[in-house]
Amino acid sequence: MKSKISPFWKTFSAYDTISLMSQLYDGYDENTHSVPIVVLDSQKTKEYVEKNIHICGVKDSKTIEDLVVGQSLEYSDDKELFFKKENSHLDHYIVKINWDKLHEEAGKCHDLEAQEPYGVIQQEKIMRKIVLEKSARLHTNTFIVTESDLGSYVSEPTNEDNYSYAKGLDYHIQFIATLLQMEQNEFITILGFDFNFDAERTLVKEVFSKYSALYPVADHIYLPAKHCQVLIEITENNKTDTGNLTHPNTNTPSQTNSSHANLFKISFKNTVYNHKTALLTLNDIEIQIPPNTNQDYLCRVIFSNQTAMKKKWDWIEIIENKAWGDTEQKDNKDFWRKTYNAAHEVNTRIATEIGIKNFLLTKPTTTVQINPLYLP
């Protein structure tokens, strides 16, 4: 599959490792049995891998070996045929994923962006303050934290990839390591991780575009890229007084499970899609979907009834459904990208309104389903 990774990571020696991790997180989930990985030793091989969404690619076999030594991956005896005969000569490996170890290794790679870290105690002190302030603001003790919570920074453009390396808090705080330290000190419980290594920093002016006319925002103020999202719960002794806890922007009481394998359950009892107005309603939150687009067609299919909302849809089932409006070139083997891209765009709209990034799941990438965590 084609690796999606921000050019920001090119400045680090772990670029090939981060690229492989990005493919693993994008293309597979914890039900995956075996994963094929090909060494990209020629342009032809690279083109072959990019066209095959079930195959990962690395520049150097040592990247795989290092992750095997670190126990994030293990070589598999699976004899399943991933490659056609004419491609059997490719330098390839079949591996299994140890997700707990992979999360751990991804956290270490992620924290490379903290190039001048403060002392451990200072980092935790800052993070505790940020966590408590967000808890009070959202009226809940269970929520997602990302690097953007570290606050904005002023930055001037540079000639290299249009990146500037201003020293915001993300330059000084090892985000994952600090959260793990807070868990070890029993300040929080970590309920789940999600990594997105292709995320880009956000211009604050774009975030507050609705208000920019009233409150002008400088052109060079940014929020750090959301390379990871961590679901946490503040432990009992440290909880803020939030009364009857509800998830932000919903009226649903919080329900938690301390196991890392189980994410926070948020039930949207009123989940309705109006295909006439292209309006998605989640409890009392209304989200406008662009009408007569692939986003609209996808919502018409997967939100059509209770059975559809619980179904894991294969892309061919979606485009063959009468509610899907774009059937042109549906026999094209790359048509699945239309459903994948539509799901990503709908997710972005939902995340903007209610802060939930993974309302729709696309793992494997040829499927779409509503995350069972959020079903009524």
Can you tell me the overall shape?
globular
Largest sheet: 4 strands, mixed
Radius of gyration: 22 Å
Chain-averaged pLDDT: 80
The poorly predicted ranges are 161-165, 209-217, 241-265
Describe the protein's architecture and organization.
It is a single chain. By secondary structure, the chain is α+β, with helices and mostly antiparallel strands. It folds into three domains: 7-99, no CATH class; 114-238, no CATH class; 271-374. The chain has eleven helices and 16 strands. It has helices spanning 15-27, 43-51, 61-69, 99-110, 120-138, 175-184, 204-207, 294-302, 306-309, 315-320, 336-354; strands at residues 35-39, 56-58, 73-75, 92-97, 142-146, 153-154, 188-195, 202-203, 221-223, 228-234, 271-274, 279-282, 285-288, 313-314, 360-361, 367-370. Strands 2-1-4-3 form a four-stranded mixed sheet, sandwiched between helices. Strands 5-10-7 form a three-stranded antiparallel sheet, covered by helices on one side. A hairpin with a 4-residue loop joins strand 11 (271-274) and strand 12. Helix 5 crosses helix 6 and helix 8 (294-302) crosses helix 11. The longest helix has 19 residues, at 120-138.
List the helices and strands and how they pair.
Elements: H1 15-27, E1 35-39, H2 43-51, E2 56-58, H3 61-69, E3 73-75, E4 92-97, H4 99-110, H5 120-138, E5 142-146, E6 153-154, H6 175-184, E7 188-195, E8 202-203, H7 204-207, E9 221-223, E10 228-234, E11 271-274, E12 279-282, E13 285-288, H8 294-302, H9 306-309, E14 313-314, H10 315-320, H11 336-354, E15 360-361, E16 367-370
Helix pairs in contact: 5-6, 8-11
